[in-house]
Protein backbone atom coordinates (compact mmCIF):
# COMPACT_ATOMS: atom_id res chain seq x y z
CA UNK A 1 0.00 0.00 0.00
CA UNK A 2 2.76 2.37 0.97
CA UNK A 3 4.66 1.47 -2.14
CA UNK A 4 1.56 2.19 -4.18
CA UNK A 5 1.11 5.61 -2.55
CA UNK A 6 4.75 6.40 -3.15
CA UNK A 7 4.43 5.45 -6.80
CA UNK A 8 1.41 7.72 -7.18
CA UNK A 9 3.36 10.47 -5.46
CA UNK A 10 6.27 10.02 -7.85
CA UNK A 11 3.96 10.06 -10.84
CA UNK A 12 2.37 13.28 -9.59
CA UNK A 13 5.75 14.85 -8.99
CA UNK A 14 6.94 13.98 -12.44
CA UNK A 15 3.70 15.23 -13.97
CA UNK A 16 4.06 18.59 -12.27
CA UNK A 17 7.80 19.00 -12.45
CA UNK A 18 8.78 22.13 -14.31
CA UNK A 19 10.27 21.70 -17.74
CA UNK A 20 12.55 24.09 -19.56
CA UNK A 21 10.47 26.91 -21.05
CA UNK A 22 10.78 28.23 -24.54
CA UNK A 23 9.21 31.39 -25.89
CA UNK A 24 8.06 31.06 -29.50
CA UNK A 25 8.03 34.45 -31.20
CA UNK A 26 6.21 34.56 -34.54
CA UNK A 27 5.59 38.27 -35.18
CA UNK A 28 5.77 39.36 -38.82
CA UNK A 29 6.23 42.80 -40.35
CA UNK A 30 6.74 41.48 -43.86
CA UNK A 31 5.59 38.29 -45.55
CA UNK A 32 3.43 36.15 -43.31
CA UNK A 33 3.65 32.37 -43.57
CA UNK A 34 0.26 30.75 -43.18
CA UNK A 35 2.05 27.74 -41.68
CA UNK A 36 2.73 29.66 -38.43
CA UNK A 37 -0.35 28.33 -36.55
CA UNK A 38 0.33 24.82 -37.87
CA UNK A 39 3.92 25.06 -36.67
CA UNK A 40 2.94 26.27 -33.19
CA UNK A 41 0.37 23.51 -32.85
CA UNK A 42 2.88 20.86 -33.99
CA UNK A 43 5.46 22.11 -31.49
CA UNK A 44 2.92 22.20 -28.66
CA UNK A 45 1.82 18.64 -29.40
CA UNK A 46 5.42 17.41 -29.53
CA UNK A 47 6.55 19.39 -26.48
CA UNK A 48 6.38 16.48 -24.04
CA UNK A 49 8.57 14.31 -26.25
CA UNK A 50 11.49 16.63 -25.52
CA UNK A 51 10.21 17.68 -22.11
CA UNK A 52 9.81 21.40 -22.75
CA UNK A 53 7.04 23.91 -22.33
CA UNK A 54 6.30 26.33 -25.14
CA UNK A 55 4.67 29.72 -24.75
CA UNK A 56 3.96 31.62 -27.94
CA UNK A 57 3.50 35.31 -28.59
CA UNK A 58 3.61 38.02 -31.23
CA UNK A 59 3.69 40.81 -28.65
CA UNK A 60 7.02 42.62 -28.82
CA UNK A 61 6.50 44.25 -25.42
CA UNK A 62 7.11 40.78 -23.93
CA UNK A 63 10.73 41.28 -24.96
CA UNK A 64 11.59 42.88 -21.63
CA UNK A 65 14.25 41.79 -19.13
CA UNK A 66 11.83 40.33 -16.63
CA UNK A 67 9.83 38.24 -19.05
CA UNK A 68 12.72 36.93 -21.15
CA UNK A 69 14.54 35.86 -17.99
CA UNK A 70 11.89 33.15 -17.49
CA UNK A 71 12.95 31.27 -20.61
CA UNK A 72 15.63 28.73 -21.40
CA UNK A 73 15.45 29.56 -25.10
CA UNK A 74 13.82 32.04 -27.44
CA UNK A 75 12.58 30.55 -30.71
CA UNK A 76 12.05 32.89 -33.67
CA UNK A 77 9.47 31.09 -35.82
CA UNK A 78 9.15 32.39 -39.40
CA UNK A 79 9.43 35.99 -38.27
CA UNK A 80 9.85 38.67 -40.94
CA UNK A 81 10.92 42.32 -40.85
CA UNK A 82 11.52 44.63 -37.90
CA UNK A 83 9.78 42.60 -35.23
CA UNK A 84 11.50 44.27 -32.27
CA UNK A 85 11.79 47.91 -31.25
CA UNK A 86 14.96 49.26 -29.64
CA UNK A 87 13.85 48.37 -26.10
CA UNK A 88 13.06 44.83 -27.23
CA UNK A 89 16.45 44.48 -28.91
CA UNK A 90 18.24 45.70 -25.80
CA UNK A 91 16.45 43.17 -23.61
CA UNK A 92 17.08 40.40 -26.11
CA UNK A 93 20.79 41.24 -26.21
CA UNK A 94 20.85 41.20 -22.41
CA UNK A 95 19.12 37.82 -22.42
CA UNK A 96 21.73 36.39 -24.78
CA UNK A 97 24.54 37.87 -22.67
CA UNK A 98 23.05 36.07 -19.66
CA UNK A 99 23.38 32.60 -21.16
CA UNK A 100 20.05 32.48 -23.02
CA UNK A 101 19.77 30.10 -25.97
CA UNK A 102 18.48 30.94 -29.43
CA UNK A 103 16.62 28.89 -32.03
CA UNK A 104 15.73 30.24 -35.45
CA UNK A 105 13.34 28.58 -37.88
CA UNK A 106 12.83 29.36 -41.59
CA UNK A 107 12.41 33.13 -42.17
CA UNK A 108 13.93 33.88 -38.76
CA UNK A 109 16.82 34.71 -41.10
CA UNK A 110 14.72 37.36 -42.85
CA UNK A 111 14.12 39.48 -39.81
CA UNK A 112 16.00 42.29 -37.98
CA UNK A 113 18.22 42.63 -41.05
CA UNK A 114 20.28 45.53 -39.68
CA UNK A 115 20.70 44.25 -36.15
CA UNK A 116 24.27 43.04 -35.88
CA UNK A 117 23.95 41.04 -32.65
CA UNK A 118 20.92 39.25 -34.06
CA UNK A 119 22.74 38.41 -37.28
CA UNK A 120 25.66 37.02 -35.30
CA UNK A 121 23.43 34.96 -33.01
CA UNK A 122 21.56 33.64 -36.05
CA UNK A 123 24.65 32.98 -38.17
CA UNK A 124 23.65 34.61 -41.47
CA UNK A 125 20.81 36.53 -42.98
CA UNK A 126 18.61 35.27 -45.79
CA UNK A 127 19.35 36.66 -49.25
CA UNK A 128 16.87 35.09 -51.65
CA UNK A 129 15.25 31.71 -52.24
CA UNK A 130 14.63 29.44 -55.19
CA UNK A 131 10.99 28.52 -55.91
CA UNK A 132 9.24 26.09 -53.62
CA UNK A 133 10.17 22.63 -54.90
CA UNK A 134 11.59 19.25 -54.02
CA UNK A 135 15.33 18.95 -53.58
CA UNK A 136 17.77 16.67 -51.86
CA UNK A 137 19.42 17.67 -48.61
CA UNK A 138 22.78 16.25 -47.61
CA UNK A 139 23.56 15.59 -43.98
CA UNK A 140 27.04 17.05 -43.49
CA UNK A 141 29.24 17.90 -40.55
CA UNK A 142 29.55 16.10 -37.23
CA UNK A 143 26.83 13.94 -35.73
CA UNK A 144 24.12 16.10 -34.15
CA UNK A 145 20.76 15.42 -32.45
CA UNK A 146 18.98 17.40 -35.20
CA UNK A 147 20.38 15.19 -37.96
CA UNK A 148 20.96 11.83 -36.24
CA UNK A 149 17.64 10.43 -37.39
CA UNK A 150 17.73 11.80 -40.92
CA UNK A 151 18.60 9.76 -43.98
CA UNK A 152 22.02 10.76 -45.30
CA UNK A 153 20.28 12.15 -48.36
CA UNK A 154 16.87 13.53 -47.55
CA UNK A 155 14.47 14.55 -50.28
CA UNK A 156 11.88 17.10 -49.24
CA UNK A 157 9.87 20.05 -50.47
CA UNK A 158 10.65 23.53 -49.20
CA UNK A 159 12.10 26.89 -50.18
CA UNK A 160 15.85 26.72 -50.74
CA UNK A 161 17.44 29.68 -49.05
CA UNK A 162 20.61 31.46 -50.04
CA UNK A 163 22.38 33.56 -47.47
CA UNK A 164 24.17 36.89 -47.53
CA UNK A 165 27.19 35.64 -45.66
CA UNK A 166 28.84 32.46 -44.57
CA UNK A 167 27.78 31.32 -41.07
CA UNK A 168 31.08 29.44 -40.81
CA UNK A 169 32.81 32.83 -40.61
CA UNK A 170 31.18 33.23 -37.19
CA UNK A 171 32.17 29.75 -36.05
CA UNK A 172 28.89 28.04 -36.92
CA UNK A 173 28.96 24.35 -37.84
CA UNK A 174 26.91 23.57 -40.93
CA UNK A 175 25.00 20.28 -40.59
CA UNK A 176 22.65 20.32 -43.59
CA UNK A 177 23.24 21.63 -47.07
CA UNK A 178 21.12 21.27 -50.17
CA UNK A 179 22.49 19.52 -53.24
CA UNK A 180 22.19 22.34 -55.74
CA UNK A 181 22.10 19.93 -58.65
CA UNK A 182 18.72 18.60 -57.48
CA UNK A 183 16.67 21.74 -57.96
CA UNK A 184 16.29 24.56 -60.44
CA UNK A 185 16.55 28.27 -59.97
CA UNK A 186 20.01 28.22 -58.51
CA UNK A 187 22.41 31.02 -59.11
CA UNK A 188 24.22 32.55 -62.04
CA UNK A 189 27.07 30.23 -61.37
CA UNK A 190 28.82 30.70 -64.71
CA UNK A 191 28.74 34.45 -64.34
CA UNK A 192 30.15 34.10 -60.86
CA UNK A 193 33.08 32.10 -62.11
CA UNK A 194 33.97 34.93 -64.51
CA UNK A 195 33.86 37.47 -61.70
CA UNK A 196 35.87 35.27 -59.37
CA UNK A 197 38.58 34.51 -61.87
CA UNK A 198 38.86 38.17 -62.79
CA UNK A 199 39.17 38.90 -59.11
CA UNK A 200 41.79 36.19 -58.64
CA UNK A 201 43.75 37.75 -61.45
CA UNK A 202 43.62 41.15 -59.82
CA UNK A 203 44.56 39.72 -56.45
CA UNK A 204 47.54 37.93 -57.91
CA UNK A 205 48.67 41.03 -59.74
CA UNK A 206 48.49 43.17 -56.67
CA UNK A 207 49.92 40.44 -54.48
CA UNK A 208 52.98 40.05 -56.62
CA UNK A 209 53.44 43.74 -57.17
CA UNK A 210 53.67 43.31 -53.46
CA UNK A 211 54.14 46.88 -52.44
CA UNK A 212 50.93 47.66 -50.66
CA UNK A 213 49.85 45.01 -48.20
CA UNK A 214 46.73 46.90 -47.22
CA UNK A 215 45.48 47.04 -50.77
CA UNK A 216 46.11 43.35 -51.09
CA UNK A 217 44.06 42.53 -48.01
CA UNK A 218 41.31 44.76 -49.22
CA UNK A 219 41.23 42.86 -52.48
CA UNK A 220 40.99 39.56 -50.64
CA UNK A 221 38.04 40.87 -48.69
CA UNK A 222 36.42 42.15 -51.82
CA UNK A 223 36.88 38.74 -53.35
CA UNK A 224 35.07 37.14 -50.43
CA UNK A 225 32.32 39.66 -50.95
CA UNK A 226 31.99 38.62 -54.57
CA UNK A 227 31.66 35.02 -53.43
CA UNK A 228 28.77 36.02 -51.24
CA UNK A 229 27.14 38.11 -53.95
CA UNK A 230 27.29 35.15 -56.25
CA UNK A 231 25.17 33.10 -53.89
CA UNK A 232 27.12 29.94 -53.43
CA UNK A 233 26.00 29.40 -49.85
CA UNK A 234 23.63 26.46 -50.21
CA UNK A 235 23.30 25.86 -46.48
CA UNK A 236 20.14 24.57 -44.81
CA UNK A 237 20.91 24.21 -41.09
CA UNK A 238 23.74 24.95 -38.69
CA UNK A 239 24.53 25.37 -35.02
CA UNK A 240 26.81 27.42 -32.79
CA UNK A 241 28.08 25.90 -29.56
CA UNK A 242 28.45 29.43 -28.28
CA UNK A 243 26.11 31.87 -29.98
CA UNK A 244 28.11 34.71 -31.50
CA UNK A 245 25.48 37.34 -30.66
CA UNK A 246 26.74 37.78 -27.09
CA UNK A 247 28.65 40.96 -26.28
CA UNK A 248 32.09 40.61 -24.74
CA UNK A 249 31.99 39.53 -21.12
CA UNK A 250 28.65 37.78 -21.54
CA UNK A 251 27.90 34.09 -21.06
CA UNK A 252 26.98 32.58 -24.44
CA UNK A 253 24.28 29.97 -24.76
CA UNK A 254 23.72 27.83 -27.82
CA UNK A 255 22.24 28.74 -31.16
CA UNK A 256 20.51 26.50 -33.70
CA UNK A 257 19.08 27.52 -37.05
CA UNK A 258 17.17 25.63 -39.73
CA UNK A 259 15.89 27.25 -42.93
CA UNK A 260 13.23 24.57 -43.42
CA UNK A 261 9.60 24.93 -42.31
CA UNK A 262 7.78 26.84 -45.05
CA UNK A 263 4.75 24.61 -45.56
CA UNK A 264 1.97 23.23 -43.37
CA UNK A 265 2.87 19.78 -44.63
CA UNK A 266 6.43 20.25 -43.41
CA UNK A 267 5.13 20.51 -39.85
CA UNK A 268 3.20 17.27 -40.31
CA UNK A 269 6.28 15.45 -41.55
CA UNK A 270 7.81 13.24 -38.89
CA UNK A 271 11.26 13.48 -40.42
CA UNK A 272 11.23 17.27 -40.27
CA UNK A 273 9.80 17.25 -36.74
CA UNK A 274 12.63 14.95 -35.64
CA UNK A 275 15.09 17.43 -37.12
CA UNK A 276 13.66 20.56 -35.51
CA UNK A 277 12.96 18.94 -32.12
CA UNK A 278 16.49 17.52 -32.08
CA UNK A 279 17.83 21.03 -32.64
CA UNK A 280 15.65 22.53 -29.92
CA UNK A 281 16.60 19.85 -27.39
CA UNK A 282 20.27 20.33 -28.22
CA UNK A 283 20.11 24.11 -27.81
CA UNK A 284 18.76 23.77 -24.28
CA UNK A 285 21.68 21.66 -23.17
CA UNK A 286 24.10 24.55 -23.21
CA UNK A 287 23.84 24.27 -19.40
CA UNK A 288 23.84 28.07 -19.24
CA UNK A 289 20.20 28.39 -18.17
CA UNK A 290 18.36 27.50 -14.99
CA UNK A 291 16.76 24.33 -16.32
CA UNK A 292 20.19 22.68 -16.23
CA UNK A 293 22.28 25.04 -14.13
CA UNK A 294 21.36 26.27 -10.67
CA UNK A 295 23.69 29.27 -10.86
CA UNK A 296 22.35 30.47 -14.21
CA UNK A 297 20.83 33.91 -14.64
CA UNK A 298 17.93 33.09 -16.96
CA UNK A 299 15.58 30.19 -17.52
CA UNK A 300 12.82 28.27 -15.88
CA UNK A 301 13.97 27.85 -12.28
CA UNK A 302 11.66 25.20 -10.92
CA UNK A 303 13.02 22.51 -13.16
CA UNK A 304 14.02 19.18 -11.71
CA UNK A 305 15.11 17.82 -15.02
CA UNK A 306 18.40 16.45 -16.05
CA UNK A 307 19.54 16.63 -19.64
CA UNK A 308 18.05 13.75 -21.56
CA UNK A 309 19.97 13.28 -24.75
CA UNK A 310 23.55 12.24 -24.76
CA UNK A 311 25.76 14.82 -26.34
CA UNK A 312 28.50 12.46 -27.34
CA UNK A 313 29.74 12.97 -30.83
CA UNK A 314 29.40 16.72 -30.83
CA UNK A 315 32.77 18.21 -30.50
CA UNK A 316 33.79 21.78 -30.70
CA UNK A 317 33.18 23.90 -33.74
CA UNK A 318 35.44 22.09 -36.12
CA UNK A 319 33.86 21.45 -39.45
CA UNK A 320 35.50 19.19 -41.91
CA UNK A 321 33.00 19.21 -44.74
CA UNK A 322 33.77 22.48 -46.52
CA UNK A 323 32.69 21.25 -49.91
CA UNK A 324 30.52 24.16 -50.94
CA UNK A 325 32.80 27.11 -50.50
CA UNK A 326 35.77 27.36 -52.77
CA UNK A 327 38.86 28.51 -50.99
CA UNK A 328 39.80 31.74 -52.68
CA UNK A 329 42.80 32.76 -50.68
CA UNK A 330 45.04 29.75 -51.08
CA UNK A 331 48.15 30.49 -53.09
CA UNK A 332 46.99 34.06 -53.35
CA UNK A 333 50.35 35.61 -53.90
CA UNK A 334 52.34 32.64 -55.00
CA UNK A 335 50.91 31.68 -58.38
CA UNK A 336 52.80 33.55 -61.05
CA UNK A 337 50.89 36.11 -63.02
CA UNK A 338 51.21 34.23 -66.25
CA UNK A 339 49.46 31.13 -64.86
CA UNK A 340 46.87 33.29 -63.29
CA UNK A 341 46.16 35.05 -66.58
CA UNK A 342 45.96 31.74 -68.38
CA UNK A 343 43.64 30.35 -65.75
CA UNK A 344 41.43 33.39 -66.06
CA UNK A 345 41.09 32.96 -69.80
CA UNK A 346 40.36 29.24 -69.55
CA UNK A 347 37.90 29.52 -66.67
CA UNK A 348 36.14 32.51 -68.18
CA UNK A 349 35.64 30.67 -71.44
CA UNK A 350 34.33 27.68 -69.55
CA UNK A 351 32.10 29.89 -67.46
CA UNK A 352 30.62 31.63 -70.48
CA UNK A 353 29.90 28.24 -71.99
CA UNK A 354 28.28 27.04 -68.77
CA UNK A 355 26.29 30.20 -68.40
CA UNK A 356 24.94 29.99 -71.92
CA UNK A 357 23.83 26.37 -71.47
C1 LIG B 1 -2.08 26.02 -43.42
O1 LIG B 1 -2.75 25.84 -42.21
C2 LIG B 1 -3.47 26.98 -41.75
C3 LIG B 1 -4.12 26.66 -40.43
O2 LIG B 1 -3.23 26.08 -39.56
C4 LIG B 1 -4.54 27.37 -42.77
O3 LIG B 1 -5.16 28.57 -42.36
C5 LIG B 1 -3.87 27.57 -44.12
O4 LIG B 1 -4.86 27.83 -45.09
C6 LIG B 1 -3.09 26.35 -44.51
N1 LIG B 1 -2.39 26.63 -45.76
C7 LIG B 1 -2.51 25.88 -46.84
C8 LIG B 1 -1.76 26.30 -48.06
O5 LIG B 1 -3.17 24.85 -46.84
C1 LIG C 1 18.75 48.49 -43.23
O1 LIG C 1 19.86 49.22 -43.73
C2 LIG C 1 19.75 49.54 -45.11
C3 LIG C 1 21.06 50.18 -45.53
O2 LIG C 1 21.47 51.14 -44.60
C4 LIG C 1 18.55 50.45 -45.32
O3 LIG C 1 18.42 50.75 -46.69
C5 LIG C 1 17.30 49.73 -44.84
O4 LIG C 1 16.18 50.57 -44.94
C6 LIG C 1 17.47 49.26 -43.40
N1 LIG C 1 16.32 48.44 -43.05
C7 LIG C 1 15.73 48.51 -41.89
C8 LIG C 1 14.55 47.61 -41.71
O5 LIG C 1 16.11 49.24 -41.00
C1 LIG D 1 25.53 19.77 -20.00
O1 LIG D 1 25.36 18.82 -18.98
C2 LIG D 1 25.20 17.48 -19.43
C3 LIG D 1 24.90 16.61 -18.25
O2 LIG D 1 25.77 16.86 -17.20
C4 LIG D 1 26.46 17.05 -20.18
O3 LIG D 1 26.29 15.76 -20.69
C5 LIG D 1 26.71 18.02 -21.31
O4 LIG D 1 27.93 17.70 -21.94
C6 LIG D 1 26.78 19.45 -20.81
N1 LIG D 1 26.88 20.35 -21.91
C7 LIG D 1 27.82 21.30 -21.95
C8 LIG D 1 27.80 22.18 -23.17
O5 LIG D 1 28.63 21.48 -21.08
C1 LIG E 1 26.10 28.01 -15.24
O1 LIG E 1 25.69 29.36 -15.31
C2 LIG E 1 26.70 30.29 -14.96
C3 LIG E 1 26.06 31.68 -15.00
O2 LIG E 1 25.56 31.98 -16.26
C4 LIG E 1 27.85 30.19 -15.93
O3 LIG E 1 28.88 31.07 -15.55
C5 LIG E 1 28.37 28.76 -15.91
O4 LIG E 1 29.39 28.62 -16.87
C6 LIG E 1 27.24 27.78 -16.20
N1 LIG E 1 27.72 26.41 -16.12
C7 LIG E 1 27.87 25.66 -17.22
C8 LIG E 1 28.30 24.25 -16.98
O5 LIG E 1 27.70 26.08 -18.36
C1 LIG F 1 47.06 35.18 -48.59
O1 LIG F 1 45.80 35.39 -48.01
C2 LIG F 1 45.70 35.00 -46.66
C3 LIG F 1 44.28 35.14 -46.23
O2 LIG F 1 43.79 36.43 -46.41
C4 LIG F 1 46.68 35.83 -45.83
O3 LIG F 1 46.61 35.41 -44.47
C5 LIG F 1 48.06 35.66 -46.36
O4 LIG F 1 48.94 36.53 -45.68
C6 LIG F 1 48.11 35.98 -47.85
N1 LIG F 1 49.42 35.65 -48.39
C7 LIG F 1 50.29 36.59 -48.72
C8 LIG F 1 51.61 36.07 -49.18
O5 LIG F 1 50.04 37.78 -48.68
UniProtKB/TrEMBL annotation:
<feature type="domain" description="ThuA-like">
    <location>
        <begin position="21"/>
        <end position="283"/>
    </location>
</feature>
<feature type="signal peptide">
    <location>
        <begin position="1"/>
        <end position="17"/>
    </location>
</feature>
<feature type="compositionally biased region" description="Polar residues">
    <location>
        <begin position="299"/>
        <end position="309"/>
    </location>
</feature>
<feature type="compositionally biased region" description="Low complexity">
    <location>
        <begin position="310"/>
        <end position="330"/>
    </location>
</feature>
<keyword id="KW-0315">Glutamine amidotransferase</keyword>
<dbReference type="InterPro" id="IPR029062">
    <property type="entry name" value="Class_I_gatase-like"/>
</dbReference>
<protein>
    <submittedName>
        <fullName>Class I glutamine amidotransferase-like protein</fullName>
    </submittedName>
</protein>
<dbReference type="Pfam" id="PF06283">
    <property type="entry name" value="ThuA"/>
</dbReference>
<dbReference type="InterPro" id="IPR029010">
    <property type="entry name" value="ThuA-like"/>
</dbReference>
<feature type="region of interest" description="Disordered">
    <location>
        <begin position="299"/>
        <end position="330"/>
    </location>
</feature>
<keyword id="KW-0732">Signal</keyword>
